Amino acid sequence: MRVSPLLLAVYVLFLTACNDTPEPAATAALPPFVKTVTVRTGAGTTLGLSGTVRARVESPLAFQVGGRIARRAVDAGQAVRAGQVLFELDTRDLAQSVGAAAADLAAANAALATAESDLARHRQLETQNFVSAQALERAELARREAQTRRDAATARLVQARNALGYGRLQAPVAGVLIDVTGEAGQVVAAGQAVALLAQAAEREIEVYFPEDVTPPEHGEVVADDGANLPLRLRETAGAVDPQGRTRRARYTVLDPSHALVLGAVLRTRFAAQDANASDFAVPIGALDERGQGPRVWRLREGRVVPVAVSVLALDGETARIRGPLTAGDRVVALGAHLLDENMQVRELGQ
Known about the structure:
Elements: H1 5-19, E1 33-34, E2 36-38, E3 40-41, E4 46-55, E5 58-62, E6 67-72, E7 79-80, E8 85-89, H2 92-127, H3 133-165, E9 168-170, E10 175-180, E11 187-188, E12 193-199, E13 203-210, E14 218-222, E15 228-236, E16 246-253, E17 265-271, E18 279-283, E19 295-300, E20 303-308, E21 310-315, E22 318-322, E23 330-332, E24 346-347
Parallel strand pairs: 1-24
Antiparallel strand pairs: 2-23, 3-18, 4-13, 4-17, 5-12, 6-8, 6-11, 7-10, 8-9, 10-12, 13-16, 14-15, 14-17, 15-16, 18-22, 19-20, 21-22
Helix pairs in contact: 2-3
């Protein structure tokens, strides 16, 4: 069958028209969804911080004389009793010092005995007018000088014997060795700490507060078994730490029946009664600290605006902040580090 050229041309034009449909326009990018939370005032809330169990007295231990450590008898974490030997020095030089001091004392005793004999003889001769009064006075002076030299030699011998005893470092009281740095063969100077002893007395909780928060007088700590132990403020650092901008406080545990492990980090709670109208509580995920200080993102008319704040405390999943916010403001609760100023967003349904 022969197809006419005209009919063939019409068919080709028809197929071309069918394939020339316009491509769908690219879907416009929609603003991302964000989860928001309503800012609530922080007044009357609980201030929660981490606290470290510390001993009331932590004593650095050191030798009173220098020398080479010959023996180390303890390890870190070990409980020791009062008087227990912890380290020993090589005491050969100290023993030689004792021998030298004893020899000096023997010589001083001999010199004193000679001076006393001379004085007795001069007194006898002076009564017979065989020596002058001046000679008797010189004999008395020689005797006093010999006595003084003997006293000095006695003191040096006592010091040498004490130094020999200082070659053994003993625990002054019972406790637990937090750290042990001395090693056998190490040469140490007098007063150089070789161990740190936590005395077996009451335990305390060390807490670091933000610089603009006054440590409360009372609080509580949550022990490992879940018990709430009352705390009482014992001391507060006189200055703010220049690095962390925090203030250190020590709290006494009022219930000594619980055995608290040294160095354990426990949760503490304090009544934040000093919070003012500009203190608020937000989720930790709402904080954004990308090199410009802490801030939160407030949602206004579908766009987010950064608000600079100060972090007062962190407690689990909540941050206590201070800044130019108003109770009822809505801030982004998650993903704050992904936002930009005046970025358009969509709020998730509550």
